[in-house]
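Model it.
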Amino acid sequence: MSIIANKQDYYFGAALCSLFNRNNGFSPTIIDSSSSDSRAYLFTVNNNPDFYMYMKHTESCRENTDGSLSWKVKFTNSENSKLLEYYKTGCKVFVLIICSQDDYYKSRFLLLTYYEYSLISEKSSLIIKINKADKRLKNGFDLYCNRKAILTDIAFNRLEKDFHSL
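Modeled.
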């Protein structure tokens, strides 16, 4: 019997590889894989406190007339409750949104702290945008709800940083 992996599994694997390639001593345990578009992990890190990472995949990439790229993502009430539970343990919580594109190598990883996530968690839907035309924003994401910027200029390279400094 063969096991068939879905597209999301490849993106979750790519995200984990990016984490491992840039950070030593991570030991993840998957704690929730009940949804096809999300995964939750508890990471144990050498000589540092544990942290949770909730990964969510979106493939609704759209190229806008101004040259920017955008993705639409929605968090359910169940996801919001799970993330709040993780936060209440006292461990740090991160949300990694995988913004995929048809050319998989152009996909982006948006890493949010729990505080940043809490600013958007109650929104009905969220637009993640990379604005190519505005040089000020070329190194980061903007998050919108109802055409209003909620968070701006979130760095692309957050996966390369020490998670405990975020």
